[in-house]
Sequence to fold (279 residues):
Amino acid sequence: MNGVIASASLMVAAVLISACGDQTASVELHAASGPAVAKVVFLAGRDSHGSGAHEHKAGSELLSSALRKRRPDYATVNVYGGWPDDESVFEGADAVVMYCDGGKRHLINDHLATFNRLVKEGVGVVALHYCVEVPKASAAASAMLDATGGYFETHWSVNPHWTAAYTALPSHPVTRGIEPFSMLDEWYFNMRFQPQGISGLLSAVAPESTMERRNGPHSGNDAVRKMVADGAAQVTAWAYQRPKGGRGFGYTGGHFHHNWQNDNARNLVLNAIEWVAED
Fold:
């Protein structure tokens, strides 16, 4: 664990720094209420949908605030709108929580040297919703597999909107206190996973309606159609214990901002942040 920030009281500082092109990323520093047990960096990309969906800034603010309420001994850094030019924000980090657009717009694509260094150092990584997707068979795909154990692979994984019923949850530190629940979201499934070290935490049987779209890079393929037809349970959130140290977590929900009001969904992610930070 690398947490190094300490303060007698909660302190917030905000600065503007240069990010991608003419964009700017804002940075907020929230010190722990005492000696910090852990430091968590939240990386939020720009909002990319209309109100109520892909609200990366608001979602990160909500999760960061909720984390500090339950763990006042945590320090957090909230980066909004892009990758920070001043990478000193990562110094002493125990975990990085990413909530941003994926694919070719993913924040790590142009910053793999730093990202891979953090993973190699054992920094935990949490990937939320669209940011589980990176370009197929790319260097970023290898990085995500190393960091979180899985990623959304185009022409293999799918992204339908559906109500997932999580009727049973495995015993795991991330699932402590979480009750079975159902929720409508854009739950991705059929991820490309590492062969070992993966613990499926949320699994549900996807209805036939998830396969109503034509085959495409995000919508369907023959392999996933057969799995859905056979009633195979689909993993939509997972934990990863890296073989060389460090932990990762992937959560494919998070499309709708109001879903963070669901106690089970929100607390599952908060549990995961703690789990990856305190390896």
Q: What stands out?
A: The radius of gyration is 18 Å. The CA atoms of residues 224 and 231 lie 11 Å apart.
